[in-house]
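TODO from last week: model Regulator of G-protein signaling 16.
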Amino acid sequence: MSCWMPGCPALSMCRGLAALPITCLERAKYLKTRLGILLHKPELGHKTGSSSKLQLGSRRRDSSREVLEWRESFDQLLKSKSGVNAFHTFLKTEFSEENLDFWLACEDFKKTRSKTKLASKANRIFEEFVQSEAPREVNIDHETREITRKNLSGATSACFNEAQAKTRTLMEKDSYPRFLKSASYQDMSKQAASRGTSKRSHT
């Protein structure tokens, strides 16, 4: 083998690399980069996994505390998204979920800023929940129904206030106490309490 510097292995290597197509060299660089990423992945994955476990544990503690807070007051229940979902599920078993749906529709309605949308939403809510023989008629007295009807002529964010308050009182005095006594809530609160006890015993 002839070489300008006898016994030079580097020269042979350089000649070999030079003979390779550009695409092969690019491929080799890509593979080297990917290999470096893969070598670091287990460490990154471990850190992420630990963080996820901590966040999950924190969420469980928060949800346990929330469940127990629902029995403190009806307001506490309504402030909790998961509480509202649990209460809605319970109301379905009593075929009275329209009361909560109306209350939620009113809460959403109050956030409407456009006057055009305000009027159309008001009519839709009235037709669905308030008017006599509405598809999902809520249990309110005739006088409140008529006051709400008159409010539609100049719809404002407050036009359902009276009807919403009556429906809320009905749920608080009637459905809410039964929800707290229901088997579903009793099971949830027992589980929440046991998680709280378990947490204290480990600290």
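Done. DSSP finds nine helices and no strands in the chain.
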